[in-house]
Amino acid sequence: MLVHRLADFLASVPLFSRLSTDERRGFAALAREQRYPRGALIVRQGDPGDALYVLRSGSVKVAIVGDDGREVILDTLGQGAHFGELALIDGRPRSAHVVAVDPAVLLVLRREDFRREVERQTRVAWALLEELSRRLRDADEKITALVLLDVPGRVARLLLDRATGTPPTIERAPTHETMAQMIGASRETVSRAMRELQDAGLIEVERRMVRVLDQEGLARRGRPGATPSRAARGAARPAEAPEDVDSDVADSDVDDGDATGSSDAGAGDE
Question: Hey, what's the signal peptide range on this chain (predicted)?
Fold first, then answer.
């Protein structure tokens, strides 16, 4: 029964969605389910890459930590996402930490089992190539944003990438600290950028929810060469509250975990 349920879940994962039910069951039979509490270290940067992980529930962050201890968040992933593909292909050590932001349930497919099954189900290999191509394009776009965009432009792109539905909405937006770690900025400049986008009428914020009011305007703000809005060019506010305290998306609502911290859960399951 568990194999059938896992096979049904894999139908919602792009990597496996093109397979027949029987083919998905072949992968489901090889997977084992693991649970991680909030803040648990799932994968440690530099460890051997011996498995593919598929996120069945919860959310995780992918991060690297510099020698100075500064953390840079490369991505946050939710249900249906997967990670560990690079190590499956080249066998090299893990390129980043992965930490559970919320309690997470993951399916783990060991490298040898996955490769053996892929030799039988070549459509997965093509899907994997497409996913890696997409991530390479995403990486190119992020590099472009870091080089050519100011912080409000980077924030605009990040919000557009994460907003879904009509109107585009992020139900549980990243904290300002998390956004700063994702776009190479400080928390204070992200807070100012969020206020600029609100003052320009591009977004509205209600606690952790961000709603896009002007999708085209936000997209323009996220393109190289965009100029600040008229509201943002107005007079500075001399009496602003310190940004470490005042945040429209409350940073106190979530603890993103520590990518360098130890955890009993999953420490031996990388």
Answer: none
- Whole-Å CA distances, 205 to 74, 90, 177, 187, 191: 24, 43, 16, 17, 12
Question: Where in the chain does DSSP place strands (E)?
Answer: 32-36, 41-43, 51-57, 60-65, 71-77, 82-83, 97-100, 104-110, 169-170, 203-206, 209-212
pLDDT of residue 145: 79
121 and 54 Cβ atoms separated by less than 8 Å? no
Closest by CA to 167, choosing from 137, 204, 193, 126, is 204
Angle, CA of 21, 51 and 57, to the nearest 5°: 60
Which range marks the domain in which residue 111 is found? 2-131
Look at the pTM and tell me if it is higher than 0.85: no
CA–CA separation, 64 and 1 (whole Å): 38
Residue of 207, 210, 220, 211 whose CA lies nearest to 157: 220
Q: Of the candidates 131, 157, 184, which is a domain's last residue?
A: 131
